[in-house]
Amino acid sequence: MPKVVAELTIVPLGTASPSLSEYVAEVEMALREVVGLQVMLTPMATVLEGELDLVLQAVREVHELPFLAGAQRVSTRLSIDDRRDKEITMQGKVAAVEEKLH
């Protein structure tokens, strides 16, 4: 199965503080433990690279983490780039744009 690149944002709601970095760190640690999944933390989301089934399974598992940490509600947004005509990677997507900037 070809790799996909996905953007994931998990927002816990109903928490005691407006700061979410502890929740984000817990999700990031769990994602980084998934064998075969590449993970890139950005200021506003996490980018994932891997086989579609692996990405979906990982997202399902980390969606639960804020609930386990006490959040009352969780909003999860997932955007998937699934290209079948050629292999895509996080680095390749960035390089394609950087090349056009020079």
Q: Would you mind describing this structure in some detail?
A:
- With 102 residues, the protein is of the alpha+beta class.
- The chain has a single domain, classed as Alpha-Beta Plaits (2-Layer Sandwich).
- The chain has 4 helices and 4 strands.
- The chain has helices at 21-32, 52-63, 65-68, 90-101; strands at 3-13, 38-41, 46-51, 73-81.
- The protein has a 4-stranded antiparallel beta sheet with strand order 2-3-1-4.
- The radius of gyration is 15 Å and the shape is globular.
- The mean pLDDT is 95.
> How would you classify the helix and strand content by structural class?
alpha+beta
Per the CATH scheme, the topology name is Alpha-Beta Plaits
**Share of β-strand residues:** 25-35%
Output the number of helix runs: 4
Short description:
With 102 residues, this protein is α+β, with helices and mostly antiparallel strands. The chain has 4 helices and 4 strands, in the order βαββααβα.
Could you name the key traits of this structure?
102 residues; alpha+beta; Alpha-Beta Plaits; 39% helix
Topology:
Layout: E1 3-13, H1 21-32, E2 38-41, E3 46-51, H2 52-63, H3 65-68, E4 73-81, H4 90-101
Antiparallel strand pairs: 1-3, 1-4, 2-3
